Amino acid sequence: MNVCTGFIPLSLIKTNEGNIMNVNPLNLENKVALVTGAATGIGASCVEYLARMGAKVMATDIQTELGQQSVDGLREQGLDVAFHTLDVCSENDWDKSVKATLAQFGGLDILVNNAGIYIGGTLLENSLEQVRHVHKVNVESIFLGMKSAAEVMKPGGAAGKGGSIINLSSIAGLIGVPGHSAYGSTKGAVRLYTKHAAVEFGKLGYGIRVNSVHPGVIRTDMGAQAFQDFVDIGLAKTTAEAEELIIGMTPIGKLGEVEDIAQMIVFLASDAAGFITGAEFSVDGGMGAQ
Ligand SMILES: NC(=O)c1ccc[n+]([C@@H]2O[C@H](COP(=O)([O-])OP(=O)(O)OC[C@H]3O[C@@H](n4cnc5c(N)ncnc54)[C@H](O)[C@@H]3O)[C@@H](O)[C@H]2O)c1
Questions:
Q1: For 209-233, what is the mean pLDDT?
Q2: Is the distance from CB of 7 to CB of 24 less than 8 angstroms?
Q3: For a disulfide at 26, which of 9, 198, 234, 283, Cβ 3.0-4.6 Å?
Q4: What pLDDT digit, counting tens, does each position of 67-83 carry?
Q5: Could you list the residue range(s) of the whole structural domain that residue 33 is in?
Q6: What is the domain-level CATH number for residue 186?
Q7: What are the boundaries of the signal sequence (predicted)?
Q8: End-to-end CA distance of the chain
Q9: Distance 220 CA to ligand 1 centre (A)
Q10: Pocket of ligand 1 (CB under 6 A)
Q11: Distance of CA 88 to CAs 39, 81, 91, 144, Å?
Q12: Atom of ligand 1 nearest to the CA of 63
């Protein structure tokens, strides 16, 4: 299936017998995904792209009404998606959402740990409460998500077929950015949590790949917060000027769109990425390469 605008799937793969076959390894039919923070932004786009590539997708978020609306729209287009309320900081919610996914779709092969929050301000302005809160939402969620999913994905688990976990980090988890110390420290933790889980799950024979994706500045509500933060800490006079400044920091000369991230998620979720684990993927227009 190739229905995503601008999406060119690979089609030639080498079989174990050494033959080249014309199939689409990005096809996600027979796979079940759970996406967090899926009511809007990057998460909502991931739900759509995964579903258009054939996956059955459980979209989750704390914003129940918006998440349900988004899923209703996709269902009307014939996509096999459902919604469940999930606060990624709640172990109980994780348990219920994973059980709901197994009950509705009969498995779990892909987890996209996407939900996250941003807090700006300089290090001197940040309070301990703010720093603790952003770490709770952005890092503890990754722990709970990987634990809840791996428990059912590993051999002998309720799904039991292994799978792919994709953690949303950030360019701010790789390089320093003014106003991003609290947020960036969470995303640095996500990067390394990913590698530890990948190595451990690999060595223990779980058949679960774990990778991190590092977006540059993407046009979403959170992206807009970054512009405002540049204004608040005095690096730009207006949000328009902040946007120009950020575009100037991006070699490719534009901001990213949610689809740029969703297409990377599809790749990492698919069998085309079968030998990739513990790796970090920048989707940042070259910002981190400088
Ligand atoms: N937009 C960017 O420029 C950018 C850049 C780098 C990384 N990221 C990362 O990508 C991910 C998605 O970002 P986005 O731009 O789509 O953000 P967004 O703010 O547009 O959407 C985030 C979603 O997460 C949900 N959410 C927040 N707290 C939650 C919680 N406790 N439980 C469940 N859901 C919760 C929100 O309701 C919302 O639907 C985040 O992890 C973010 O850090 C974004």
A1: 96
A2: no
A3: 9
A4: 999 999 999 999 999 99
A5: 28-285
A6: 3.40.50.720
A7: none
A8: 37
A9: 9
A10: 36-37, 39-43, 61-63, 86-89, 114-117, 137, 168, 170, 215, 217-218, 220-223
A11: 13, 19, 8, 7
A12: 37
